[in-house]
Each structure stands twice: as structure tokens, then as C-alpha cells.
Specification:
By secondary structure, the protein is of the alpha+beta class. Helices cover 23% and strands 39% of the residues. The strands form 2 sheets. The chain has a 5-stranded mixed beta sheet with strand order 7-1-8-10-9. A hairpin with a 4-residue loop joins strand 2 and strand 3. The chain starts with 7 loop residues before the first strand and ends with a strand. Bound molecules: zinc ion.
Length: 192
Amino acid sequence: MINSKEITTIIWNVEYCTPPAILRYCKKCGKKREYVCSGEFRINAQQKVLDVWLIYKCVQCNTTWNSSIYSRVSPQSLGVDLLERFHNNDAFLALQYAMNISILHKNGVEIKMPAYNIIGEDTSLENSVIIKIKSQYILPLKISSVLRTKLNLSRREFENLVSNNKIQSITDQNLKKGKLLSSETIILISNT
Ligand SMILES: [Zn+2]
């Protein structure tokens, strides 16, 4: 058993370059295309209820597709402040919705993972170290991709290290197939 208190901990932050694009059939292009978030909301008021969407655009022809955020809700339930932010296309708010994978899943669309950077100290397999992988947004990024990229390992090398317990998940995730599904994933690299 390794005493984790004696091991250096380093933190890697996963930073996505953009929100995920979505993939869907574009009628105008006549084929499946990437749609990217426009950062703009559309609000429709009917009677006493509101619909709110986040607008996506085909990268090729700008055809729009609306991702439903709120459907048939009362303006009171959203509150004046939130409504104001929708009307002003608040950039931070748009980013929060665009990074929310469960909203995109509810809309039934296929997602294309964005490019990302891993910010944090490099390490080598010669050191025993605990790595905390953190991400502000929970997107289905493979843990193996993060580790292989940062440790510069081929798939085979990585899988051998996992099979031999040289790379382990402290948070009990499947390192070969698992995804970053929480804001913190803890890995142990063991040189013993
Ligand atoms: Zn198109």
C-alpha cells in the first residue's frame, strides 16, 4: 500500500478551446455538418409562457438550429435578472449552456468534442506522483486521452502501464475506457 501523503500531488486543468460543436444534417448543404454555438439566445413569448433557445449555426452556410433551453415556462419562474441576460445575449451565460452536455443530449444531437489544452506541470513515469485532473466543465473527454497526451504515451504503452498498475485511478474509474465525468479525477502514477 502506498502512503499517498508522501507523494507529490500535481494538478492538471483541462481547458476547452471552444464549446462542443454539434453534428446534424443541414438541409441547405444537403449533408451532415458541424454547427457551432452563435452565443445568441432566441426568446419566444406566447400568451403567458416563454421558450428560450440557444442558437447554433452551420459552419458552412450559417443555417441556424435552435437548442431548446426552456420550454413553456412562466417568465416569473425565470426571474427578471435571468430574462435580462437572455435578452442581452450574456456571453458567460451562453457559454454555460453551450458547455452543458445534458442540454444537448435532451435536444437529441450528436456532439463533436472540442480541442483542449491541459495546463499543469509535466511529470515522468520515473516519479511516483498523484495527478488531479480538473475541469470546470464536464464534457465526455476520455481520461486515457488526457493521460496519453500529457505523458506522451502510445495506446499500447498506456494500456500496459494500466494493466501493470503503474497508472491507477484513485477515484475508481476505468482508465482505459472511462471519461472525465466529474470535476476532479485522481490518478496515481507509481514507480514501484
Ligand atoms: Zn449548411
